[in-house]
Structure to design on (873 residues):
């Protein structure tokens, strides 16, 4: 007989404006590695936060070893034997490995006996095949080693069910292999692992069973042995939904290039290569969609194009002119508009008023300023005009942007970007987190701009959005563009597979 | 660990709070102070009346109050100018010293050889340049290497302090009075280089206070109306947004730090030209105007115009404190009373931004 470690049924979690989990069914057997697969926004994180007691479900049943449970906090969940290894580590940098492991454990005495603690931690590490020095300080460790400390922490607390949230996102392939071995030793001991991921290959290699989530619902649970990456990709992106491509009256002209990248390389914040020889071009009035799972270099791509991040090699051309590397103002002045993914804190200064945010890119020159002084009347006139034109719902133009709803925040941002008459717009996840109505408005604005001749590079994790808006689709995986195809007749399944790291050859 | 009492940021700050909360803070101060005074056997009403009279009401009191308020206005504006950008310049003290050094240098040099107007302008400029350049080191370190400006500006206060002593104790120093044989002191300025004093309703007002008012007005305009002020607001609100629109963040940080130091430097010039008339190392170091300026800026909520009023308030409190001291009234008690006033003012300030929430469910959880 197979023991069920964790059983969830009909789990619903609503947030204002979105249903993150909509009746999730989920069964995890004791001693297995169970992968939770889905795109960003499919509800994986919400589900794991419910399991670990960070959120309370609005509806549904959770049973641990057949007993209904309801955790009020992550600590309560940990006491019951469910531990979470977060993607972003929660470690005290100046402390040693052993100190971090015993930290927060109620049995830890006030004064820590470092020798016996070190021994205990070393023993635990060895048992699970995790090489880490208990007396090392956290800041001395590599990211892979820090993750082992996180895992040791929950094991030390006696967790029987471990949830790992995208554990390989920060690991090198060799470190990932080591992690998989550790997971095997844990399941061999009868522990249960829930492995959250969006990478098809690793899910296939590490898990026993796979549950696929899409749009907050369970698509299904399959045995790893009897499935394929192709089937999983289909389940992940959904092959049955028919969606309509937007009909363009004034299609773009790919020959008249307004934005072109050639051989662009760049690094992420930690100085690791994030962009690998990116070459792509966007024509006048054309929408090129960049599909891909978040964290594959999309943010770096947008930042390199707009000058916020210097490229390590390659060049960016706007309207036929090469942009100087890493100069935001030059990019803006050459006609490059940018809707960043972090709209509230990068695209806007959230604490400043609507009118000041609208002036943010044009305050430097007349009519908004003269002789170093702002012209307040000109600014408020421009702001009032755009607020009306873009139908921004705000009490007045002096209201801080942070008090507006998500859709109106995005409208403020778009109104400003389009008011500069751009040649090119780089839009990153422009509809993420918006409700249906606001999403429609934003998409319509993008189409209108393209119809008017703006070349748009649309970077989005929402495949449906890309397929319905874009003229051409490129797929980004681990810093490379792995495909470039017209979106007319593009296969959703193929794109899903490419997003998950599959190659085109596998498909054919 | 959730506490049952929580501070929650206010979404809107009702206007009436701006008056209500200071009033309630004052009431709290008076009550707490009364407890303290009663416990030490004093009559609170009497003590409060004496403080009010000797700080603000009598003619002599006002003279002293404005005299103390002048340097506090400069250092308060210095702190406010930098804090607005999120640069915590606590080096107003050292920048004030350097301003005094620069102003006394040119003051001694020009003496009475040029008209007073020229002397004043040159002294103020020299003070601003010395203070500004001195703060510039802090700004460059912060902008280029992201060094904590709190540490560097604090450390540079000590350097300035030692330099000040050196300029007076070194027997060949240009600043030292060669005739001071006993304890060394600064060379006095020519009488014709003393800054003028104006009479306003019978109260003498130093020229430096006018410069402070003018500086406050200029800062207000810069922060409210200029492109630079706009950029400062953007950087302070979101450094990422400032990068996104191509604001030269580093340059702005350096410029604002220099500006802030220049304001304190002007205060140093006023100390020399208005009051001491020589480089008075000892009293500059005793008063600690630079540090009190931080309190001025905080209480004024970084508003330049507000800083002027707070400077007068704190100036009055300081002088009232001096006049309260006596055999029956130890200076420790004075300090405690002054501390209470500031404590309640700062506590009240927090309540204008946050509100207190009682969280009943946290106890059960």
């Amino acid at each position: 007989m197979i023991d069920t470690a964790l059983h969830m049924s009909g789990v619903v979690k609503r947030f204002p404006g979105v249903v993150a989990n909509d009746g999730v069914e989920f069964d995890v057997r004791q001693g297995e590695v169970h992968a939770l697969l889905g795109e960003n926004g499919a509800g994986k994180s919400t589900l794991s936060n419910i399991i670990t007691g960070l959120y309370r479900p609005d509806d549904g049943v959770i049973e641990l070893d057949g007993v209904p449970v309801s955790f009020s906090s992550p600590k309560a969940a940990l006491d019951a034997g469910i531990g979470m290894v977060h993607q972003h580590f929660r470690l005290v940098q100046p402390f040693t490995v052993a100190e971090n492991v015993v930290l927060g454990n109620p049995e830890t005495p006030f004064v820590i006996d470092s020798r016996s603690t070190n021994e205990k931690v070393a023993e635990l590490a060895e048992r699970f095949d995790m090489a880490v020095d208990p007396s090392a300080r956290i800041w001395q460790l590599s990211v892979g080693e820090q993750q082992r400390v996180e895992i040791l922490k929950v094991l030390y607390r006696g967790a029987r069910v471990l949830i790992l949230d995208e554990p390989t996102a920060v690991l090198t392939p060799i470190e990932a292999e080591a992690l998989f071995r550790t997971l095997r030793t844990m399941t061999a001991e009868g522990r249960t692992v829930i492995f959250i991921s969006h990478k098809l290959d690793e899910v296939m290699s590490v898990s026993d069973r796979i549950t696929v989530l899409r749009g907050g619902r369970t698509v299904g649970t399959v045995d790893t042995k009897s499935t394929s990456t192709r089937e999983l990709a289909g389940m992940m992106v959904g092959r049955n939904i028919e969606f309509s491509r937007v009909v363009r009256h004034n299609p773009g002209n790919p020959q008249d290039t307004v934005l072109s990248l050639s051989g662009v390389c760049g690094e992420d914040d930690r100085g690791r290569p994030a962009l690998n020889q990116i070459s792509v071009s966007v024509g006048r009035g054309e929408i090129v969609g960049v599909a891909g799972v978040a964290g594959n270099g999309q943010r770096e791509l947008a930042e390199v194009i707009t000058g916020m991040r210097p490229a390590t090699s390659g060049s960016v051309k706007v309207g036929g002119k090469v942009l100087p590397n890493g100069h935001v103002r030059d990019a803006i002045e050459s006609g490059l508009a940018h809707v960043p993914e972090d709209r509230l804190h990068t695209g806007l200064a959230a604490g400043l008023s609507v009118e000041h945010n609208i002036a943010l890119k044009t305050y430097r020159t007349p009519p908004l300023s003269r002789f170093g002084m702002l012209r307040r009347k000109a600014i408020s006139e421009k702001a009032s005009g755009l607020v009306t034109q873009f139908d921004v719902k705000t009490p007045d133009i002096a209201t801080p942007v942070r008090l507006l709803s998500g859709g109106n925040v995005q409208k403020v941002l778009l109104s400003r970007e389009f008011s500069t008459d751009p040649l090119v717009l780089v839009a990153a996840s422009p509809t993420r987190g918006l409700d249906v109505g606001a999403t429609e408005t934003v998409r319509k604005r993008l189409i209108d701009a393209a119809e008017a001749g703006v070349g748009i590079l649309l970077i989005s994790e929402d495949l449906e959005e890309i397929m319905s808006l874009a003229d051409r689709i490129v797929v980004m995986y681990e810093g490379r563009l792995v495909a470039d195809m017209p979106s007319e007749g593009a296969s959703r399944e193929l794109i899903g597979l490419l997003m998950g790291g599959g190659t085109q050859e596998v498909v054919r | 660990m959730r506490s049952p009492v929580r501070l929650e940021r206010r979404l809107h700050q009702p206007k009436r709070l701006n008056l209500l909360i200071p009033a309630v803070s004052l009431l709290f101060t008076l009550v707490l102070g009364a407890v303290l005074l009663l416990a030490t056997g004093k009559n609170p009403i009497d003590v409060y009346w004496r403080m009010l009279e000797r700080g603000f009401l009598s003619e002599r009191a006002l003279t002293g109050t404005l005299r103390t308020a002048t340097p506090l206005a400069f250092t308060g504006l210095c702190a406010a100018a930098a804090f607005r950008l999120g640069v915590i310049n606590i080096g107003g003290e050292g920048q004030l010293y350097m301003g005094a050094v620069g102003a006394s240098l040119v003051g001694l040099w020009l003496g009475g050889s040029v008209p007073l107007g020229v002397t004043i302008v040159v002294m103020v400029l020299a003070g601003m340049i010395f203070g500004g350049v001195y703060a510039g080191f802090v700004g460059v370190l912060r902008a280029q290497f992201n060094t904590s400006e709190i540490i560097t500006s604090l450390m540079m206060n000590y350097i300035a302090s030692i330099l000040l002593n050196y300029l007076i104790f070194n027997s060949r120093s240009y600043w030292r009075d060669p005739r001071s044989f006993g304890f060394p002191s600064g060379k006095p300025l020519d009488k014709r280089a003393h800054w003028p004093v104006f009479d306003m309703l019978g109260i003498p007002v130093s020229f430096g206070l006018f410069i402070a008012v003018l500086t406050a007005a200029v800062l207000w305009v810069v922060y409210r109306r200029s492109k630079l002020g706009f950029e400062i607001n953007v950087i302070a609100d979101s450094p990422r947004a400032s990068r996104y629109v191509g604001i030269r963040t580093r340059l702005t940080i350096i410029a604002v730090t220099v500006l802030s130091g220049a304001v304190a430097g002007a205060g140093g010039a006023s100390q020399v030209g208005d009051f001491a008339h020589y480089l008075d190392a000892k009293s500059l170091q005793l008063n600690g105007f630079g540090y009190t300026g931080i309190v001025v800026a905080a209480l004024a909520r970084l508003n330049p115009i507000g800083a002027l009023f707070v400077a007068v308030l704190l100036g009055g409190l300081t002088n009232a404190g001096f006049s309260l001291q006596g055999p029956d009234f130890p200076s420790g008690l004075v300090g405690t009373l002054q501390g209470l006033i500031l404590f309640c003012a700062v506590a009240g300030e927090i309540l204008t931004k946050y509100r207190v929430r009682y969280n009943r469910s946290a106890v059960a959880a």
Chain A touches chain B through 33 residues (CB under 8 Å).
